[in-house]
């Protein structure tokens, strides 16, 4: 559980477009790292490259290394399916599988990997739903479709689904941007809980959120339209928000640009 | 503003809202009249056809024999007998056609949506499917006649009919399946990949079940469509007034073929059989359409 991630000289491309340039960054275990920055600066792209989801897009390409406890996930011998099993992901919009019940959504990863033991699956479902702070709300309707839950509940269902396969790292791509403030608070509390067991990387547009939940913050920026995004600086969250090392960071967090 | 001030009878500020202007009311009336005319033009022939078919055919199919007996041994002018042989033919030819078309069509659609992308092969396949969609049924029938009967040397049979129907059904299945797979959001595929589920399993266990109701509806509608095709049965199977269970040999009736045949029968019995077969075909196709609706209701992703 909870491994460290080291990103080394990462360059990301969509076809000929150079999306992100020379990112190097260390993500310590049992720690929340937040990626902040303006739209289009490549923070989601970097996040998606950490579990090889970037290459799902047609023409997408990766250069550089991403090391999970020292093992390069982009080595030619590595199966991307294994990588995604080890490094889970929660998306911007809640996306439960519409044909499955709440329980089946949670255990989808295990079930589709061939686990058939009903008792084991039930245990995993309960443990994961408790882990995602959703158990008490859904325990009486586990057989109902996942699509019937509220947006915030659906997102916690997706988190439960992601932790059910017991990943080493959890990536979250703006997990609260489609949610109301109360659901957002529930997810933020959950992130703080999950930090005890998982290494978490979260992309967020909400700087208060980054300040509230993360231990370390990475600021990405874009020098101009059509230019690749860059990592400007990464430091302890407290330092980034009180005394950033770069002027661009200060301008961004204080709401001034250019 | 200055005109307002010059005229004391008017309000200081004109009212913000006015009644609908005359020109807009006229345009609205004209548009409404046109829409209703178009509706009536579409509906009158439909109602007329249905009325004629029901009025002339309904008494015929009320007889239990109609559903259980063939016309074996009856003279053209002799009344009685039934359409069992033709109903069997229509259903079995459609079923065999579906057994071949559905897997082929679905696999082509999966290739096009999930794997093909913008590759040359995918583009060529789409182009071919488009061409096949436009092929008239008589051309499909003659093509099968040339390949299956003239070159391969097989006889005219129900199976040859099914093969020609396959040519007509595959493009429809491909098209509907393609559309249904396309509307499955990519987010579901990504959610599945992110759980470490391989692509093929994502397609089989996540994408297809999500699109299943639409795919099955499309298949049912395509099947209903090809079962009414007349050209392939005319060209590829001889009519038999008796029951033939053999798919691969001998003449076999089907409802369209029975209708063509009885049209040449000038007696009262022929008239009854013609309209009886017509309403039977309409009923079978309606049944398939209803089945499609039921299936899509039952299988559609639920939220409650």
From TrEMBL, chain A:
Example of a GO biological process term: phosphate ion transmembrane transport
One Gene Ontology CC term in the entry: plasma membrane
UniProt topology in membrane: Peripheral membrane protein
InterPro entries: AAA+_ATPase, ABC_transporter-like_ATP-bd, ABC_transporter-like_CS, P-loop_NTPase, PstB-like
Keyword Lipid biosynthesis: no
Positions of the ABC transporter domain: 5-247
Molecular function (Gene Ontology), one example: phosphate transmembrane transporter activity
Keywords, comma-separated and alphabetical: ATP-binding, Cell membrane, Membrane, Nucleotide-binding, Phosphate transport, Translocase, Transport
SMART domains the UniProt entry points to: AAA
Gene3D superfamilies: P-loop containing nucleotide triphosphate hydrolases
UniProt entry tagged with the keyword Glycosyltransferase: no
Chief location category: membrane
Subcellular localization, as worded in the UniProt entry: Cell inner membrane
Function: Part of the ABC transporter complex PstSACB involved in phosphate import. Responsible for energy coupling to the transport system.
Protein name, entry field: Phosphate transport system ATP-binding protein
Lineage: Bacteria, Bacillati, Actinomycetota, Actinomycetes, Pseudonocardiales
TrEMBL record, chain B:
Subcellular location: Cell membrane
Main location: membrane
Topology relative to the membrane: Multi-pass membrane protein
GO cellular component: plasma membrane
InterPro entries linked to this entry: MetI-like, MetI-like_sf, Phosphate_PstA, Phosphate_transprt_permease
Domain ABC transmembrane type-1: from-to ranges: 87-296
Any one of the GO BP annotations: phosphate ion transmembrane transport
Annotated transmembrane regions: 30-51, 91-113, 125-148, 154-174, 206-227, 274-300
Superkingdom assignment: Bacteria
Xref: CDD domains: TM_PBP2
Keywords, sorted A to Z: Cell membrane, Membrane, Phosphate transport, Transmembrane, Transmembrane helix, Transport
Entry's Gene Ontology molecular function annotations: phosphate transmembrane transporter activity
Function: Part of the binding-protein-dependent transport system for phosphate; probably responsible for the translocation of the substrate across the membrane.
Family indicated by similarity: Belongs to the binding-protein-dependent transport system permease family. CysTW subfamily.
NCBIfam families per record: 3a0107s02c
This protein's name: Phosphate transport system permease protein PstA
